[in-house]
Design a protein that fits this description.
By secondary structure, this protein is α/β, with parallel strands linked by helices. The protein contains three helices and nine strands.
Length: 171
């Protein structure tokens, strides 16, 4: 009988502990995500600061309903950059609605960042501030072990060269 009571108390304790951890995660998750986002965006800011004076660099651009992490202007080219600070392995295809992050044996699902950035570009076009411009959709991952190898999707270590070499590759 003592063993049964002991097991019930331990079982309840484990249940209560997991419940409390879940409540804490729900409460603080938005703040944690904001801090992680800021870390990733600051990494990209430092990379973009290395571009020379031929490039105009803007951060946290708001156009219509869009909030663009970074935008680089070079001649008539507009690099619209979405930054993601996702650890682990990222899996997704260009046309998927959601992408999967594998981290610590768990799966997390997020909106496709290419689609998210397409919305940003549509808002820029709708604003009418740049007729005849070429818009380049760029998604930069900071801290990921593995990312989808798609056009315009890259690690932070690839961003600088991608921008600088873009015009010569496009020609």
């Amino acid at each position: 009988m003592k063993i049964i009571i002991y097991l019930m108390v331990v079982g309840f304790g484990i249940f209560w502990f997991k419940w409390k951890i879940n409540e804490v995660n729900k409460t603080y998750r938005p703040y944690i995500n904001k801090v992680k986002g800021n870390i990733g965006e600051n990494v990209v800011v430092n990379i973009l600061d290395k571009l020379d004076d031929r490039y105009e660099v803007y951060h946290d651009v708001r156009v219509g309903k869009a909030q663009i992490d970074h935008m680089v202007i070079y001649r008539n080219i507009r690099f619209v950059i979405e930054t993601k600070f996702w650890k682990g392995k990222v899996i997704g295809k260009r046309l998927d609605d959601k992408w999967k992050q594998l981290l610590g044996g768990r799966e997390y699902w997020y909106k496709n960042p290419i689609n998210q950035n397409e919305f940003h570009i549509k808002e820029l076009v709708k604003s009418g501030k740049c007729s005849g411009c070429e818009f380049v959709n760029v998604v930069v991952f900071v801290g990921s072990d593995s990312i989808p190898r798609l056009k315009g999707v890259m690690r932070d270590s690839e961003l600088f060269d991608y921008i600088v070499e873009y015009e010569s590759k496009a020609s």
